[in-house]
Amino acid sequence: MLQKSIKYILALAFSLFLTTFGTASFAQETEHNGGHEPKEEKLDPAKIIMDHIKDAHEFHFFTAGNFHATIPLPIILYSPSKGISLFSSSRFGHEGEETYNGFKLNEHKEIVAEDGAKVYDLSITKNVVQLLLALSVLVFLMISIAKKYAKGVGVTSAPKGWQNAVEPVITFVRDEVAKPNLGKKWTKYMPYLLTVFFFILINNLFGLLPGSANVTGNTAFTAVLGILSLVVILFSTNSHFWAHIFWPPGVPIFVKIILIPIELLGVLVIKPAALIIRLFANMVAGHIIILSFISLIFIFGAMAKGAGWGFSPISILFTVFIYFIELLVAFIQAFIFTNLTAVFIGQAFEGGHDDVDGHTDAVII
Length: 365
What we know:
This protein is mainly alpha-helical. It has helices at residues 2-31, 45-53, 126-150, 163-182, 186-206, 219-235, 239-246, 253-303, 305-347, 353-356, 359-362, and strands spanning 58-64, 67-72, 74-79, 83-88, 103-105, 111-113, 120-121. The protein starts with a helix and ends with a helix.
């Protein structure tokens, strides 16, 4: 019964998203003609999709006629000529066509000054809001679970509530990620690995809600996580590791000259780039596929209304299917990022084989 209820809720959510997507896409045509007969305009699915997956200065949920269900966010700007400017994003209008206090939105939805002066945008965008929300959920969830363990719940008695969901995940990360890759040093890195895993997972799941921000599909977010992992990796290295990097043993000298820059690039660039690009690309790809299936309705509808209505059930069916796949991908990508981080940290122990391969010492719980 619970599984059926979830399916019905998701189908309803996507039906609502389908409706709002369509009204939002074509509302501008009606407004620019004063509410009269819509002006014939060519549909641009690529622009619509990119507008939905990139960052913005407001949360937009749906449009009904001239009513736009949005949550404006604070704009914080600094310019050498005007200093700090604080105002709501609603000052720019729904489509960002209005100018306020000498600032406006350009075609890329970036805030610029009318006089061309330099502007530093420190605004709280929807990615930032959702990031803070995900962080709050993570901290609240983990602290509440930790308090239960401190009281003996889950230790002297059976776990309750969210403990039942979180404890198997923690055990999985410990047994399948930390111990095999980090050996007897797994306890030292477990807090970081668990934080990364749950933080990415919560943001992945939040990004699947209609109207939410795709935080893990933003290169700034994944870049910060990749750089943090690089810092942890570099602090985990030893002298033997760097000796192998700068003077690979058992290799002819002319080959060493080629290998040294490659090895340095591998440590400083390729490894963090693998973490950054993999997470970003997979999460963006899922959102683009979902939005593409929805866009097909309006592409067919632009040719004939009957074709649009006829293709709607097929589009919704594929959209819900991809949505369930994205739920799985949300967990998989959190696991892959965490596992690769553990693998790279373990490689930084090169030379200390007792640290990495000493599984007899690492099986102690």
